Every structure is written in structure tokens, then in C-alpha cells.
Amino acid sequence: MVSIKKDFARNRLASAVFCSMIGLPCVAVAATMEGVNEENLAVPPVEGKTLVYTDTEGTASFGWLDPINDFGVPGLGIEVYKEPFTAQQKYDFAGCLMAQPDRQLLDPPQTNCTAPPDSGKRFKLKTTETNAPIDLVVDVTADDSAKLYRVIGKFSNLTDASNSVGGDLNAFRFETGFGVGNDFIASSAGDGLSFGFADASTKLTIGDLGKSPGGLFGGSKVEGLPFFSTNVSGFEESEATALDEDTTETTGTMPAPYFNLFEDWRTLSEVPTGWFIDHDGNPANDSILLAYNADTSEAPDWQTYEKVFQDAMDDPSMGWDGNVVYEFDHDDDSNTDPIPVDIPAVNWDPNGASFASSVTVTVDNGDGTDTDYEVSDYVKDVLPLVETLGEGDPGDTQFDAISLVQSAAVDLYDGSFDVLIDGEAVNIASFDAEPDGNPDWADMPPTVAEVIGESDDTSAETDDLTFATYNSDPDPTVDGEDGVYDVAAGYVGNTYTYTDSETSETVSVTVPETLTLDEMAAVIGTGADPVTLTAADESTVTLDRRAGYLQGPIEDLANVNVNTTISVDDTSSWPTCTSDGTETNCTFTLRVTGLNDAVEEPTIPVTPVEPEPEEPTDPDDTASSSDGGGTIFGCTAGKPGSPFDPVLPGLVLMALGGLWARKRLSNA
């Protein structure tokens, strides 16, 4: 590594001396990421997808980006944010490559790279072909400062389930290079483009290189307590690429928590089906997984995992007191540190006698007096529990505050069992499987109800009328379609007015037979408060969302959260740079590939060749070698008409400069 750096230092010096002698501006020896290059992307999106093409002509595509961010706003789906930040108190980043939340446009402006959890930071990249590369191209400007960038994404398996491995993947690979498709040139050691390194032998990632979502395995600050396992399902880098600065590839072996249940990384069409509770009555939001089919659709075996909240007696070593640490904000002041409060883990158990019990903490005011604070409403925050599990305790130094016990769904969900959702003990209806194996939940989908009377009771046991019922699969013959609301016949054709929540304008709507999720949201909003519509005769209808149960694929089993870092430095050897004599612009490629070595690599289609134009017959139309515009030894030459024209005097100076540079370097 030392010799490489020394060689590059000499190359840069030689270029600088050479350029200064002949009066040319030198190409800068470092770089700044400016944005995502769109030349091989579908802009605008095609059928809701930002397709990533294998060339700039759109010949073929092996994957796509979701252009809709977590706020429902369409865009490219991926962006570079030049927001300097420090991670882990020692790594200085110049910015990040992530999704496109555009938080800088909020009022007041907020950051993107360091946005809090659950803020939509991960770009959503989907692979549709096993072992097929997806090339993401980044625009760069050359300058004089090396920089480090964080990459934050989600990589999803949408490959063809009809292939020889049923669409399964078992690894993924990152590569740095230049160009796309058949023109891709791999980056090489010391060329100024690489993955970031934490030290001489360890690549730098902020978080796991890859892992299944924490809501399924290991827990998560964002997704809460895990469903399948308290252990993280994390990918590890292969020893073969550990020291390779331009390639990062995982081992080819799936993490044990995932593999023990589902073997290899399932494609979306092959993930198990689950039953979910839509607790807020809005199917557009994430629902809570309650059970999964451990067998086939023809012979379903509905299984679940009960979360058992532990106490001190559950620790066989007797080294744990049964408490977890809750950070209590006693003064609602972000400038003061929260107070750590020990709270029994069993207080988060929605079926326990001490659920959500208040806790009193005494604080020394520093002046000889104490203040007692009552800590309540803490069960909304499950982070104290997560901090004892795989996600928060990677070294396994603490006793897990919960354990997961597998059982048949029909045994656990008997109508008396509650689950913890957003700090509430939510009762789950009886599973009560029918002879065909399907539960009564099939008859309890989310609905929108007309509220009758002034009662605040929004439970199912009211006289409220059903305005619309959510149908998650309106056409079973079509895969991947969005669900719709089927409107009750008595409301179809009625015209109502309502006040738009965003524009405050009065809007009129004639109710159709079905409403999409977006159409329903436009009428009644996305919040929890009832909304009143006014009919032509001045009568009113108050509509409110109702919770329900949904069946569908466990999509997160096809997803892996990925993290890496990229270092950009000297661009003088990059084959993608162009210069106008003042500024040098370059591109590099981050290549992402989902892998399974049991499948052959696909052939990247060749870009169709356009017929070459006829050569000019007029001698004046023939380009001369003095046109310039190229880079020579890291320098830029002027074109005819510029202040300097590289002809015979320049050649003499070039020779003299070269001799002088050789002499200086031989003495260095």
C-alpha cells in the first residue's frame, strides 16, 4: 500500500510540473460526488419503475429502483446528498448515496444523510435476474480533496421463480468501476476509486454489510421487536474479497436465523404468506405480522411466535436483575441529557399484570434537594428491549429481555391474547381455523365505517354502518396488483363535498363502486380522526377507519438492508473523465449483483449499432489532430481559438519540461 501511494504521489508531481511548464491547467487529483447519472435510467419511470438499463439506449434491464419515497412523493428513487457528517465519532463523510426523501426542502430544512430511523433513507433496488449486474452511475467533479461517502440501500430479490433454483439467491456483490453493461471496466487498486476501509484489513460499513429487516430478525430501533428470531440475520463478507478495495462479496452462505427457517434468500413470489393485523385501519401503512404459513397454500400450517417478556428468574446465571434501561426525558429539553431509568422488562408485556405501570424516579437537583418524577407512557418505546437483543447487543453481553416461543396460531390466538402495538395492548380476535385451514380473520378485513351517533366507541361491536371494505386481492388471476376498497351499494353514486386537508379547498366527489388506496386517502385522509362529508341535501356522513386482518406475502423476507462506503480520490486515470480546460467531470459505477452460483450468468445484450454516417468529402470538414480537448498526462489542452494553441512552440516547452521533471524526480 505504501508503494502505491508513493507512486501516485510521484505521478501527481510529474503531472503538476509538466502542466506548469507548458502553461496548461492540471486535472485535479481528487473528486466530489455530485449526483446520480440518469443516462442509463428510465426517466420518467416506466410503469412506476425507474428501470436501470444495461446501456444508455435502453436495450435491456436487470433491475429497477422504486421512484416513490416513503412520503409518497415520486422522483428518481436515488440521490447523492453532499451533507458532511461524522459517524461512530471518528469517520468523516462528505455525504451519502441514498433514497430521495429531500428533507432539505422541509420547513425548517432537515438533513438526509443523518436523518433519524424510519425516515426513508434507503434506496429500494430490485434485482430481476440472478447473477445479473445492475449498474448505478454517479457523476463526479474532480477537485483537490479525497472524500468518503456512505451508501444506504435496500436490495430486493424479484428474480424469476421458474429458474433452476426457484429464484433463490444466497449472496450479493458490490463492485466499483466505470461504464455500464458490456462496457463496464472494473476499478483497479490505487486508481482513486474504492470502497472505504476502517483499517488496513477491514472494510468500513455503518451497520451490517447486509441483513434481513430487524422486524423479522434481531429487532430494530425502527421496526421494533422481532417476529422470527432475536438474533440478527446478517451477511458476512467473503475472505476472498476482504482485502479487495474494489469488490465486496458475501460468503454465499445465508445467515443461520434465515436459513434455518427458509433456506436460501427467497424471491418475492416465493416468500411465505402471512396474516397481519392492520391496527390503524390504513392498508397503505405497514401492518403487524401475526402468523405465517409454514407449509403450502394447499395444506396451510399457520405458525406464530409468542413474545415472552423475561424477568430476573429467567436468567439461569442470575446475573440480570430483570430491568432494562429507559431514557427518560424529564424536562422536554433536547439540550439536557435524559435520565436513565431502570424498568422491569415485564412492564412491556401486554398480557401481564404490570403492563405500562408507572415508575417513580428520584433525581438529585444538585442543590441538596430531590425531585420525584413519574415515568409513564414508556411502553411506546421498545428500544430498551431491543438494546438487549441481537440488533442492540451484537456482542451478546446482556441477557435477552424477551424470548420467542413457537406455537400454532390457533393455540395462541384464542380471543384473549393481546399484542403490543404502538404502546397499546391490542386484542387479537380468535384465529379459530376453518376446515380448510383458513382462519376467521378472513372475514375481518379493514373497513371504513359510517359512524352512527356521537359515541366515541370505535370497536367492531357498534351499530356503525360499513361504507367500504378493503379487498387486498380484487383479481386473483393478476399477480402483484394493488388492493381496492369495495364501496357498499347504498353509497355508490352519492355526491359529497369535503375539505381537502392539504389545500383547505372544498372538493366534490361522486362515490364510485371501488376506491383505490390513494382515492380513499384523498377523501378521508390518512390520520386516525373521523372525517365528515356533506351531501347535497346538507346531511352529513362521518367516516372512520376500522382495524382488520390481511393476508399476503411477507415481503421483507425478499429484502436485505445493505450498507457500504465509497472513497473517491485521484481521478487522473479514470477513463470516464472529460474536461473543458477549467472543470473536469467524471463518472464512476457502483455495480450491484444478486448471486447464486448454481445459475449461469446471463448474457448482457449487445447495444444495437447505428449505421455509421458517410465520411465527409470536403477537406475542410476533416478534423485535425490539433483539435485538443483530451487529457494528456493529467493535463488539459486548449482547442483552437483558446488563449493557448498547442503547436510547435508548445512541443519545445514540452520537451524541456519533461527533462526538468525527470531531473527533479530523480533527486526526490
Described by strand count, sense and barrel closure, the largest sheet is:
10 strands, mixed
Shape: globular
**Average residue pLDDT:** 86
Distance N to C terminus: 19 Å
Helix content: under 10%
**Low-pLDDT sequence parts:** 1-27, 622-668
**Fraction of residues in β-strands:** 25-35%
Which structural class best describes the helix and strand composition?
Answer: mainly beta
**Gyration radius, rounded:** 30 Å
Summed up, the helix count is 6
Strand tally is: 42
What does this structure look like?
- There is one protein chain.
- The protein is 9% helix and 32% strand.
- By secondary structure, it is mainly beta.
- Among the domains are: 68 residues, no CATH class; 285 residues, no CATH class; 100 residues, no CATH class.
- The strands form ten sheets. Strands 2, 3, 4, 7, 8, 10, 13, 16, 17 and 38 form a ten-stranded mixed sheet that branches. An eight-stranded antiparallel sheet has the order 33-32-35-36-29-30-31-34, with helices on one face. Strands 1, 9, 11, 12, 18, 39 and 40 form a seven-stranded antiparallel sheet that branches.
- Helix 1 packs antiparallel against helix 6.
- The longest helix is centred in the first third of the chain and has 21 residues.
- It is globular.
- The N terminus and C terminus are likely disordered.
Question: Topology of this protein?
Answer:
Layout: H1 2-22, E1 30-36, E2 50-53, E3 61-65, E4 79-81, E5 85-87, E6 91-93, E7 95-98, E8 123-127, E9 133-143, E10 147-157, E11 171-178, E12 185-186, E13 193-195, E14 197-199, E15 202-203, E16 210-211, E17 234-235, E18 247-249, H2 256-262, E19 273-278, E20 288-293, E21 302-309, E22 323-328, E23 339-344, E24 359-364, E25 370-375, H3 383-386, E26 402-408, H4 409-412, E27 418-421, E28 424-427, E29 447-450, E30 465-471, E31 484-487, E32 495-499, E33 506-510, E34 514-516, H5 517-524, E35 531-535, E36 540-546, E37 548-553, E38 559-568, E39 578-579, E40 584-595, E41 631-632, E42 635-636, H6 648-666
Parallel strand pairs: 7-10, 8-10
Antiparallel strand pairs: 1-9, 2-3, 3-8, 4-7, 5-6, 9-40, 10-38, 11-12, 11-18, 11-40, 13-38, 14-15, 16-17, 16-38, 19-20, 19-37, 20-21, 21-26, 22-23, 24-25, 27-28, 29-30, 29-36, 30-31, 31-34, 32-33, 32-35, 35-36, 39-40, 41-42
Helix pairs in contact: 1-6
